[in-house]
Write a structure and sequence with these properties.
Layout lengths: L1 H36 L1 H9 L1 H8 L1 E6 L2 E2 L3 E3 L5 E2 L1 H12 L3 E6 L5 H6 L5 E7 L2 H4 L3 E16 L15 E5 L3 H14 L3 E5 L2 H10 L4 E5 H11 L3 E17 L4 H16 L2 H10 L6
Protein name: Cysteine ABC transporter substrate-binding protein
């Protein structure tokens, strides 16, 4: 009887030990799998975005599409403009074609972060806040920003004159951030009215629904000429912005390739040709 009990006890202990080893082995295998397929592969995919673009044969580009002469729909309902030509040339020089998607400016950077685009070429000004979320190539244009008012307006010539007025600005733009974070604290209370496109803000300025806006003259001239708006620029430029191609962070190969292409465009005269085509003068930088 004692022998049977002893034998049963030994068998039970051996079974428990074997079961423990099986559990231990099962517990370690998923961890090894997670290590090989987790953050490491994600970083690798991000780093190889240039390779993915070349494999697809297209660089997906986001832009506003309502901001002539930078980017707009032409008479054939095709995206056209300075930014479009820059993007096409950059894509060509990395061996692919540019594929464009237009949407409101305020949604461009979020869409880039969600990887709906490979790049945004839509006068995205380089700022420290944006650098925290996305990356930029070298700048491809510098724009001077002026105060714009109705032609009948004579009491607004400086930023200090904004006090008590209604100022229009593009939603999500660097100009909106500038008004809220720098001008408001210095000047005092004024109302900021935001717009999804430039032409609507100029219509409101022309009809007196807002008192002023801020923008660069390259952007305003074709809209004013086409629509006959009675508006004018006043005073000296209030600031200068540098725009660059916006890309996602941790894509060094793509950034290097785009910077190389942009440098070559400037060296061989292609950039100058594109600039003169849209602005009627040679680039100053």
């Amino acid at each position: 009887m004692k022998t049977r009990k002893k034998g049963f006890l030994v068998t039970t202990l051996m079974a428990l030990a074997l079961f423990s080893l099986v559990l231990s082995a099962c517990g370690t295998k998923p961890e090894a799998s997670n290590t090989s397929n987790g953050a490491g592969s994600s970083n690798e995919a991000a780093a190889n975005q240039l390779e993915a673009i070349k494999k697809a044969g297209v660089m997906k580009v986001g832009m506003m599409g309502t901001y002539p002469p930078y980017n707009f729909l032409n008479d054939n309902k095709e995206l056209d403009g300075f930014d479009v030509d820059i993007a096409k040339e950059l894509a060509k020089r990395i061996g692919v074609k540019a594929e464009f998607t237009a949407q409101e400016f305020s949604g461009l950077i979020p869409s880039l972060q969600k990887k709906k685009f490979d790049a945004v070429v839509s006068q995205v000004a380089i700022t420290e806040d944006r650098k925290k979320a996305i990356d930029f190539t070298d700048p491809y244009i510098t724009n001077n920003v002026n105060i714009i008012v109705n032609s009948k307006t004579n009491d607004i010539t400086t930023l200090e004159d904004f006090k008590g007025k209604t100022i229009g600005v593009g939603l999500g733009t660097n100009d909106e951030s500038y008004l809220r974070n720098e001008v408001l604290p210095k000047v005092g209370d004024f109302e900021i009215k935001t717009y999804d496109d430039v032409i609507t803000s100029l219509k409101d300025l022309n009809s007196g629904r807002i008192d002023a806006t801020i923008n660069n003259l390259y952007a305003l001239k074709p809209i004013i000429d086409k629509n006959g708006f009675q508006i004018k620029a006043v005073g000296e430029p209030i600031k200068s912005d540098q725009a660059a191609v916006a890309i996602n962070q941790k894509t060094p190969e793509l950034k290097e390739a785009l910077n190389k292409a942009l440098k070559e465009m400037k060296e061989d005269g292609t950039y100058k040709t594109i600039f003169k085509k849209w602005f009627g003068e040679e680039p100053k930088e």
